Amino acid sequence: MPKKDLMYYYRKWSLTIRILPLVLLITILKLGAHQFGYEFISSNPFLPSFVAATVFLIGFLLSGVLTDYKESEKLPGEIVSSMETIADEAYIIYRNKRTPAAKDFLERMLDFSKGLEQWFYKEIKTKDLLLMLRRFNDSYTELEPHVQGTFLNRMKQEQHNLRRLIIRIHSIKDTSFVPSGYAIVEGISILLIFSMLFTKLEPFFESMFFIVPMTYLLVYMIFLIKDLDNPFDYDTKGETTDEVSIKEIHDEVKRLEDRLEEMEGLG
To answer: What's the confidence (pLDDT) of residue 1?
Structure first.
């Protein structure tokens, strides 16, 4: 099986692998409660309503975090688009004028792109990344005598877009979606699992056929919502499970390195 396919299946099932021990533990506890007679709650017609209310609350939270997640998927691509526009302008200036400041600017952009990777992996802070972006202004000052104002205006506009996108990602990373909503969903899910553990359901093994999938669903959805709520929670190994891909950021580093090599060839 190709390596890419193995990684796809790992990403697809990694959350299930993470929660499987917890689901197995709850299943064992249910078997123990039945075996030793600890099922002290009688079956109640309100139980289906309890389940329906829990599923409704989970659906409410999931719809909210999915909205932010779909927006987050676009942000790395928009960052790269702005960086490519600025790099194009710098390359054109160097090709036409052989201005050393344009090459220096592209080197500064390469440092910034590597800083972006470090920022996503929590190796540098947002204020440090914004400071690297602010240093673009030094290059504009150096380029100003050599180019028309329209070139610099386009570059400054894309710099503004970069700053806006970085601040937006920082806000998504640091802001949780309705913390009180998480509290009620986690609380009611724990209460529902507790009630299923100690409710006497007959026939027992037929009931287990529904209890285990319901437990899996509750635990899985809570973990999934937490993952989706911060789609930029990377580690140093890269994207895992449900984080937004930043492959375009990695590719942009390589493209900037190639541009600098091309400039070296121009002389």
So the answer is: 44
